[in-house]
Design brief:
Elements lengths: L1 E5 L2 E5 L15 H11 L13 E4 L5 H5 L6 E4 L2 H13 L8 E4 L8 E7 L4 H11 L3 E12 L5 H10 L3 E3 L6 E6 L14 E4 L11 E4 L11 H7 L9 E6 L5 H9 L3 E7 L2 H14 L6 E5 L11 E6 L4 E2 L2 E2 L2 H13 E12 L4 H9 L3 E5 L3 E7 L2
Parallel strand pairs: 3-4, 3-6, 4-5, 6-7, 12-13, 12-15, 13-14, 15-18
Antiparallel strand pairs: 1-2, 7-9, 8-9, 10-11, 16-17, 18-20, 19-20
Helix pairs in contact: 4-5, 7-8, 9-10
């Protein structure tokens, strides 16, 4: 936990779930730069925050916790980000009602007076959000984006310019930069191009040639990524009644393939991204026409699944948290899988060879088998004894 000091007070902040081994802060220099700008620590003076303040992409709640006195609306694609916000508000003695929490799948406010955007890693997610928010922006709306210099590119600025209006950037401070956009009411308002759909190739097993739906921000939303493709070609062949979890489901192709291969299975799709779970449900509904059961859960991994109730977990764990490389998410996914699996239940994992997941699985399960491998990827199987 670290303390962020602003003109609105000092705030103890942590990521979620809080892990004493995690040395990463719950805010960045980009968040600090934006807050200083709002405070008026420059020639522009303080920003009027008396109207409707909307904060988009606040990763761990640092911005809305600092601005809670102005009752902001937080819009995020991250369930963990929402949980971090709730925890950080409580940690600092702030009423939970001080911040309205919304997902990117919810309707935004009808009028926005101050729009603050933490630039996401995904340009597609930014594009989708700007399109969704544009109708609520008026000529006097203050629009400020923020990000590290490595996150703000010419393409980023062009999106603001094309969708909202004239855009410029600040000087860099501590490797962070601000984006200033002046809304242009003359710009034509067009709908977002998302979600996208594409057909899968013919060599991916049960899903060959079928369509996939991808909302903005999903990993490899415009094509099938090579790791998932490798996994689809290596999935276990199983029959009979069983409970399967597609953990970190993304667009749901893995769980949908499992449902098609075994119509008697009940498949649960889990992801911390609201857009991912919406994509997974759309992909499943389009391709599975049988009476097979399925659940779609936005949540913190397997935290809501009871112990020893699952027969098979299929997992392609992420190894990035925004811009940071970390195995914390994979470790939690593996530990959660062992807890929810029945005796004899199996965890199947695909990952880059260099990540060394086999060692982690052997320590946790006492066993690990290589099912398939190529020069880049490996599919591993661990059994709960």
């Amino acid at each position: 936990m670290n303390r962020l000091t602003t003109s609105w007070g000092g705030f103890d902040l942590a990521r979620f779930p809080e892990d004493p081994r995690d040395q990463l802060r719950a805010w960045s220099a980009a968040d600090e730069y934006l807050l200083r700008r709002l405070e008026g620590i420059d020639d522009a003076g303080p920003t009027d925050l008396s109207g409707t303040v909307v904060v988009v992409g606040d990763r761990w709640g640092a911005l809305v916790t600092s601005l809670a006195g102005h009752r902001p609306v937080q819009i995020t694609d991250s369930f963990l980000g929402q949980q971090a916000t709730r925890a950080n508000l409580a940690r600092n003695g702030i009423d939970a009602d001080a911040v309205r929490l919304a997902s990117v799948r919810d309707l935004p406010p009808e009028r926005i007076d101050v729009l603050l955007i933490r630039v996401p890693k995904s340009l597609a997610l930014l594009e989708d959000q700007l399109h969704r928010l544009a109708p609520a922006v008026h000529p006097d709306t203050v629009v400020i984006g923020t990000g590290m210099v490595t996150e703000i590119h010419t393409s980023t600025l062009k999106l603001f310019e094309r969708i909202l209006g004239p855009t410029r950037t600040s000087l860099a401070v501590k490797k962070a930069r601000l984006i200033f956009c002046t809304p242009d009411p003359q710009l034509a308002r067009v709908p977002s191009p998302w979600p996208l759909r594409y057909a899968l190739p013919a060599d991916v097993g049960a899903l060959a040639g079928r369509s996939v739906t991808n909302h903005a921000g999903i990993f490899c939303a415009e094509r099938l990524d090579i790791g998932t493709r490798f996994f689809l070609c290596s999935l276990p062949e199983r029959r009979g009644t069983e409970r399967v979890v597609d953990l970190g489901c993304g667009n749901g192709v893995i769980g949908t393939a499992a449902a098609l291969a075994n119509p008697e299975a009940t498949v649960t799709f889990v992801d911390e991204s609201f857009s991912a779970v919406a994509s997974a449900e759309a992909t499943y509904r389009e391709n599975v026409t049988s009476d097979a059961e399925a659940e779609f859960v936005v949540g913190d991994g397997l935290s809501g699944v009871p112990d020893a109730t699952v027969d098979l977990v299929l997992n392609n764990p992420p190894f990035h948290s925004h811009q940071a490389t970390t195995d914390a998410t994979a470790r939690r996914m593996f530990g959660g899988s062992r807890r929810v699996l029945r005796t004899g239940g199996e965890l199947w994992v695909v990952g880059n060879r260099h990540l060394g997941y086999h060692a982690k699985l052997r320590r946790l399960f006492g066993n690990c088998e290589v099912v398939a491998s190529d020069p880049k990827f490996v599919v591993l199987r661990a059994v709960k004894r």
